[in-house]
Amino acid sequence: MKAPTIQGEKIYLRPLTAADAPRMTAWLNNPELTQYLTVEPPFTENQEREWVVSMEQSRTDLVFGVVAKDTNEHVGNIGLHHIDTGSRTAPIGIFIGAADMRGKGYGAEAVRLVVDYAHDKLKLDTIHSDIFAFNERSVALFSNAGFVRSEVRKDAHVKEGKSIDAVIYTYKCS
Ligand SMILES: CC(C)(COP(=O)(O)OP(=O)(O)OC[C@H]1O[C@@H](n2cnc3c(N)ncnc32)[C@H](O)[C@@H]1OP(=O)(O)O)[C@@H](O)C(=O)NCCC(=O)NCCS
Asked: Is the CB of residue 30 below 6 angstroms from any atom belonging to ligand 1?
């Protein structure tokens, strides 16, 4: 889906472009970040460019770059994936790529903007976040945004041979 630009206070959300691929590749090849994500590095710039195009062409995925307003720096990505217009449900995914950009309120604002867009424009009813149970910051982020812990999935993911429990946080838009 083609993403719109959405203005917030500290950040704005904008469509991703091929020019973002080198930055995204560096982020997603960093284990410090990917320890929290289901993705499996390594990634190449070409894969990231192709991914941007595939997201734009997808009928069920909507991704945004998160941009800090004070520096105009692209600091992370957020998106809704596998949007199901039948059940009006979608999973949400987010990362702030560089560690020194975390803890500044960017993630919280990005989640709020996407949840509002999902409700107001996409007419979705329920948003889920699938979080690794040890990821306390993400649990705090989604709890503060009004998501409610709805399920614990034991051994939901396997990463580097180790199984990881997941907690599912759910937001009811209406
Ligand atoms: C999780 C993530 C998206 C949160 O975004 P962020 O911009 O760092 O978070 P914010 O600054 O908006 O803070 C959100 C909440 O996290 C909590 N938090 C912030 N820093 C924290 C820390 N170091 N430890 C624990 N909780 C923390 C706070 O409760 C904060 O809420 P507050 O508004 O009450 O202070 C970001 O840290 C990140 O990308 N982490 C790595 C990838 C990841 O975990 N993605 C999510 C996968 S489900």
From this structure: no
| Residue of minimum CA distance from atom 20 in ligand 1 | 103
Mutate to test the pocket of ligand 1, among 127, 128, 141 (most ligand atoms within 8 A of CB): 141
Contact predicate 125/161, CB 8 Å: no
| Secondary structure (DSSP) of 144-174 | HTT-EEEEEEEEEEEETTEEEEEEEEEEE--
Distance CA 149, CA 128 (A): 10
**Fold (CATH) for 6-172:** Aminopeptidase (3.40.630)
Over pLDDT 90: what percentage of the chain?
98
Q: CA-CA distance, 172 to 127, in Å (whole number)?
A: 7
Q: Is the CB of 131 under 6 A from ligand 1?
A: yes
Residue ID of nearest Cα to ligand 1 atom 4 = 107
Q: Which residue ranges make up each domain of the chain?
A: 6-172
Contact 94, 78 (CB under 8 A): yes
> What digits encode the pLDDT tens for the residues 130-145?
999 999 999 999 999 9
